[in-house]
Amino acid sequence: MTAPLLAFKNVGYWYTDKQNPLFQSVNIDFHKNTFYTITGTSGSGKTTFLSLAGGLDKAKEGDIEYDGKSIRKMGLGNFRHDYVSIIFQSYNLIPYMTAYQNIASAMAITGKKVENQEDYILKMLAKVGISEEQAKQRVLTLSGGQQQRVAITRAFCCDTDLIVADEPTGNLDDKTSKEIVKLFTDLAHQENKCVIMVTHDPQIAAQSDVTIQLSNGSFRMLQHV
Amino acid sequence: MNFLKRAFWSMKAKKGKTLLQLVIFTVICVFVLSGLTIQSAAKASSELARQELGGSVTLQVDREAAMEKQQSEQSESDGPPQFTSTPISLDDAESIAALDHVMSYNYSVSASANAEDFDIIESSTSTDSSDTESEQAPGSDQGRGGIVQADLTVNGTLTSDEAESFSDGEAEIVDGRGIEESDADSNVAVIEQTLAEENDLAVGDTINISSASDEDTTQELEIVGIYETSSAGSDQAMNFSFLNPYNTIYVPYTAANTLKGEDYTDTIESVTYQMDDAENIDAFIAAAEKTDVDFDVYQLDANDDLYQQMVGPIENVASFAKNIVYLVTIAGAIILALIVMLSIRERKYEMGVLMAIGEKKWKLAGQFITEIVVIAIVAVGLSSIFGNPIANVLGNQLLDQQTTASAETTTTSLQQGSRGGGMMSGGGPGQAVSDAFSQPSEAISSLNINVTWENILILGGIGLAVAIIAALIPSISILRLQPKNILTKQE
């Protein structure tokens, strides 16, 4: 068994009352080349769990390690900057920028350098079905599905090993959802990434390699064949 | 420097907001630049005026203190009030003349005399002295000789060129020369042209005069120069010959002292020190007060009325311009900070996204500062184009208002002064004031306003500071938030 890319070690989290934790003593390892889904009822802590995995929040106790290094010690900002890409349900693109500019900005922030950046970005966008013309439009003029594809391409172009996604298909129709899930699966298996995705949809969860079910602070892992 | 590119993209995408901020910033810059330009123009004008005018300080008897002293002495003895003037010793005058900032100085001694071998210019309604109310002749001493009538006013001076009438341009030598420093102890005189013509006198002739208070004291004076006066004289000159400007003669101060009596040897009534710069008047007075001169008896009066009159309106404009700079800068910074604050609050989501990607907080603040600084640079550029004509209109309009107000005040004061002042002093501080009032048109009536590189640099500094403060303050509060909080609330 290879070393985990991301490891939760005795992680506990609560909002205000330590006696009433959302979850406690969580020990889960996440590996590359694997597509994980996290399911659970509303309020079960799926998004909070994903925030911890994406370095948007700190664990109240325990530690989270990335490639054997504590993300608390390296700093959450540095962790997000260097090692993780986050995809949100509401896409979280910068509204005044074009699709191309959104991706170029993210690449500049994370320091990802490629030769002939414009061609590279346009090619990557074309792969998810965004034309050059659409790439140069302001993102708000694109449909929800197209915006989510741009957000996924942004994560892909930043070329981090860890990609976390919070219900990225939540606002999309079935057909588009399937296409997006296919993109995540390909990312994990073809690009050797670790993809962690929160979803409500059991059908999407069934397409992942591993499903982690959250219920009343306990975690149950389901390995899909 | 990705944040610079983002700043550019943001400004390009939000053209309306960028334009609004640019208009506001340009208006602020134009006002600040106008204020700065008016201030520097006013400073340059007042410096020029100061250099041209110089300014003078007169050492003379403190009449008010002397009167108070006599009043207190009078209350102890039942005698009539007596005014005893204590002349200034030459040593005292010279000790002050040796101080810094004195460009030149001139003595003044006033005496009265009667013509012995020539005719004075009679006033049209000249009457016998016994019929008229008495008028004190210059240099006569109430305390010693009572009220004396005389034909001539004798002005003793060190150099006549620096006597007030000559330096003001009221009197001008038309033949021969004026009284010079080397004439001290000589019996020479400069007489008025009309008096000379009336008596067929010319340079080289002699005249005889006698003291008005002591007929036995006579002097033979050689005429070394003839001057012409443009003075119309006072109303009282109709009644008193010695007040007629044609009957004024200039002699060395030593000759005037001889007429006044032996007690006045090596003394003078007043000394006028010409300053190298009116700005140094206060420093000069402070230094003079540290000398051995008894300032319980004497006083130093700054004769900077003309300078004050000239630069008064301009200083008011400069002061107003300074207030404009402060007010507009502070108000502008507040208005801009509020606008930028609102704009940044709207962009909380964008900041959350960028922070989630891993952008450094200082780069986010850098983006906002860059956006406003770019606007500031364009605004400074635009205001340097529009600032000059606006500053000209604004500055000269303000100066017009101030000059008019100043002239009205001067006229009112002059009217009040002429109603109240019946006693003619025949020289001294009163005359200086009336001279200043007689030239209201001397006030600086226009400003040469030009935007200089220095003004633009100062404006650039102010603009940059305003831009950074306006962007930084609202940024700080937002940057304290965590990306999760921003994005969670957004969702």
UniProtKB/TrEMBL annotation, chain A:
CDD domains linked to this entry: ABC_MJ0796_LolCDE_FtsE
Domain ABC transporter: 6-225
Family that this chain belongs to: Belongs to the ABC transporter superfamily.
Keyword set, alphabetical order: ATP-binding, Nucleotide-binding, Transport
Name of the featured protein: ABC transporter
Keyword Cytoplasm: no
Pfam family, one: ABC_tran
